[in-house]
Amino acid sequence: MTEVRTARCIIHAMEAPSAVGVALCHGFTGEPTAVEPWADALRDAGFRVTVPLLPGHGTSIGDLARIPWRRWYDAYESAYLELARECDTVVAAGLSMGGALALRLAAHHPVAAVTVVNPALVVDDPRSRLSAVLRYVMKTVPGIHNDIKRSGQDEGGYELVPVAAAHQLKLLFRDTVTALPRASAPLLVFRSTVDRVVTSERSVEAITARYGGTDIRLVRLTDSYHVATLDNDAETIFTRSAAFFREMTGAGQHSSNAKAQGLGDLA
Asked: How far apart (Å, rounded) are the C-alpha atoms in residues 189 and 114?
């Protein structure tokens, strides 16, 4: 087992050529820190995991303000393609905006399954309707940082949101919602009952109305806020997503069959 940490990503890998890969993505203005425990849990469950740091994140809000949304997607897609070259099967996962990127990936690539946590596909702030204009007169707005019920947790990331980046976020969401009917992989959605970032149910409603697949499973998280991967329901996310990925990919069956064969030889 190896672990590689760079300024751009965190990779947890099981050294097996036929491993199932997980392309895991953090959220808007955030960092891999927000999903690192999830990556650790998936690694421990036997998956190969990569968590790219999206362009404009982990540096400065000035950098983020200059990045078009397609560069966020391209970075995530590149992580997926690298896994696809090394693994027999790849699944997609993400938190918040990372969930939107995972869903868009599923619309364009043959992922075996998708898991999203508090996915964002709609900007609930009414000012977003004017973001194309506001970005020229208003540089930043306060973000909702560390929306976590559990004390002592820190997701990293920015406390201010560049309005130019928020406009790009809206464009990403619009494109992803349009692409949803082309995605058909089994989908597991975790949704917090209290979320002060994705405040409405409109994002989940967009998924249930437009997603192309028929296997959509919704799990309600009753003891966590938006960054649920660092919150009280994190273990539920970790164990159920790992089980879901195993169910959809047959991960672990090969080793189990091999052990059974070995025992048969000894009998």
From this structure: 8
Neighbouring residues of 188: CB distance < 8 A, sequence distance ≥ 6:
113, 114, 115, 116, 217, 219, 240, 241, 244
Which of 26, 57, 96, 203 is flagged as catalytic? Answer: 96
Domain that holds residue 15: 2-266
265 is catalytic: no
DSSP-assigned letter for residue 33 = G
Q: Number of structural domains, the chain?
A: 1
| CATH number of the domain where residue 13 is located | 3.40.50.1820
Q: Per the residue annotation, which of 147, 195, 231, 233 is the catalytic one?
A: 195
Is 167 designated active site?
no
Q: Which of 203, 226, 231, 241 is catalytic?
A: 226
Answer whether residue 127 shows pLDDT above 80.
no
The lowest-confidence range among 14-23, 147-156, 178-187 is: 14-23
Catalytic annotation present for 175: no
